Amino acid sequence: MMRSVEEHLAAVLSLATPLPVETVPVSEARGRVVAASAVAVLDLPSFDNSAMDGYAVRAADVPAAGVRVAVVDDIAAGDTRRLSLPPGGAMRIMTGAPLPEGADAIVPVEASDGGTTTVAFTEVPGVGQHVRWVGEDVRAGDEVVSAGVSVTPGVVALLAAAGIAEVAVHRRPRVAVFSTGDELVPLGTTPGFGQIVDSNQVMLGELVRAAGAELVHSGHLPDDPDLVRAAFADPPGDADLVLTSGGVSMGAHDVVKEVLLAAGTVDFVKVAMRPGMPQGAGHIGGRPIVTLPGNPVSSFVSFHVFVLPLLRRLAGQPAAASLGEEVGAGVVEAAVAWRSVQGKVEFTRVRVAGGAATPMTGQGSHMLGALGAANALAVVPPACAAVEVGQRLSVIRLLGSEVGS
Ligand SMILES: Nc1nc2c(c(=O)[nH]1)N[C@H]1C(S)=C(S)[C@@H](COP(=O)(O)OP(=O)(O)OC[C@H]3O[C@@H](n4cnc5c(N)ncnc54)[C@H](O)[C@@H]3O)O[C@H]1N2
Ligand code: MOO
Questions:
Q1: Which N-terminal residues, if any, form the signal peptide (predicted)?
Q2: CA distance 21 to 36
């Protein structure tokens, strides 16, 4: 009996508890998940100030265009004097400079004759025009970021402006990657007959990094049970998650499966998906392990469908309401028709542009030729044997790719 994708995702997610919380400077928090809500220390703006280079006035003192008033001071941004505007006067003021007490409007310099001792205006100011009032954006004491939010550059700006210098975030997941198989030679080596370059090791390392996690180890293990057992017992880098590729199917030398079945803490299952059918997940040495199939595209797809949500959970992101939200799916239309496998979810490599998905040629799980041009995986449901033109499909954005809307 095959497991559904949802069932296997639930099993993988059950391996994770959010990693410990640490307090870090806001400048180092991008990509982390906020662990405790952050409260504004400052009002934003924290003082009434000008939105324009121009003149601070009392609107009532300029009842008509052409009225000439005395310019009694000059206020630059950063001027810390607490000034008071005398009745009937104006002060030259720059964008971001504090509004003098008594002023209630700004006349932009373009609507003036630019005078520095007296000034005449070409417009009649309205009360409050071009004034940025204290606290109109954020109030001190407001919750500006809540737990579970990912820190983006925008969140960094908000925290910094609101006077928050440090933020409580979950630790970044530390991941150890092992490729397995005697046929593999390292990147940069010319393979001999029967050998191939170990592309999964670098691919998984880059996926880990693109997911915002820390790659603490990347290595290769030969098909030797003793070496595999020793590596899993004590993975380098104090990893929070061990990821492997290869050796999990039905082969006589599928050593990852052999070693972990003997340990008894990892389930090996067939998942009703293509590619990526043989999967394993469990614990080893007290830490979660996910064993991905060796075929490069199977490994790549399984990472997006199972490992990325697991990393998000370790990083402190709350559970999503649905599989689609868990894997970051959007919906597009099929640009052309294509055949699909029935009874399994098919993750078709597609290129999404203009809201429509076109499948790449060469969908075999060993075929990397079109992987660089794909930007998404179309999720074709098990009941569908043929995708029709215009059919609406969920798509998972590929890590690091832009998806044209
Ligand atoms: N009798 C059966 N054979 C296979 C089954 C099955 O159900 N019954 N499932 C097939 C499917 S589907 C997949 S996927 C693969 C998964 O096999 P393994 O996880 O055991 O992976 P390997 O046998 O080690 O390798 C498969 C394939 O991928 C290449 N590979 C492996 N590692 C890398 C790497 N690091 N970089 C690049 N390429 C790699 C390897 O050379 C093989 O060609 O099993 C099917 N067989
Ligand atoms: O299910 Mo396998 O992962 O197609 O090559």
A1: none
A2: 9
State which ligand 1 atom lies nearest to the alpha carbon of 299.
14
249 CA distance to ligand 1 middle (Å):
7
Mutation choice for ligand 2 from 8, 295, 367, CB with most ligand atoms inside 8 A: 295
Ligand 1 cavity residues, CB under 6 Å: 179, 181, 183-184, 196, 198-201, 245-251, 254, 275, 277-278, 293-296, 298, 365-366
- Helix pair 225-233, 255-263: axis angle to 10 deg: 60
For the entire predicted model, the pTM comes to: 0.91
Q: Which CATH architecture has domain 21-43+138-170?
A: Alpha-Beta Complex (3.90)
For 139-181, the pLDDT digits (tens) are 999 999 999 999 999 999 999 999 999 999 999 999 999 999 9
Among all chains, which residue has been given the structure tokens 């006589």? 252
Homologous superfamily of the 5-19+172-314 domain (CATH): MoaB/Mog-like domain (3.40.980.10)
Work out the end-to-end distance of the chain between its first and last CA atoms, rounded to an integer number of angstroms. 38
Ligand number with the minimum distance to the CA of 271:
2
Peptide bond into 318 cis (omega under 30): no
Q: Find, among 130, 16, 113, 15, the residue nearest to 65 by Cα.
A: 113
- Average pLDDT per block of 10 residues along the chain, 405 residues long: 94 95 98 97 98 98 96 98 98 98 98 98 98 98 97 98 98 97 97 98 98 97 94 87 93 90 95 97 94 97 97 91 75 96 96 95 92 94 96 94 70
Nearest ligand, measured from the Cα of 272: 2
Give the closest residue (by CA) to ligand 1 atom 46. 249
Q: How far is the CA of 279 from the centre of ligand 2 (A)?
A: 10
Topology of domain 328-397, per CATH? Answer: Beta-clip (2.40.340)
Cβ neighbours around 68 below 10 Å, total: 12
Is this complex scored with an ipTM above 0.90?
yes
Q: Which atom of ligand 2 is closest in space to residue 277's alpha carbon?
A: 1
Give the angle subtended at the CA of 236 by the CAs of 230 and 237, to the nearest 5°: 160
In sequence order, the β-bridge partners of residue 41 are none
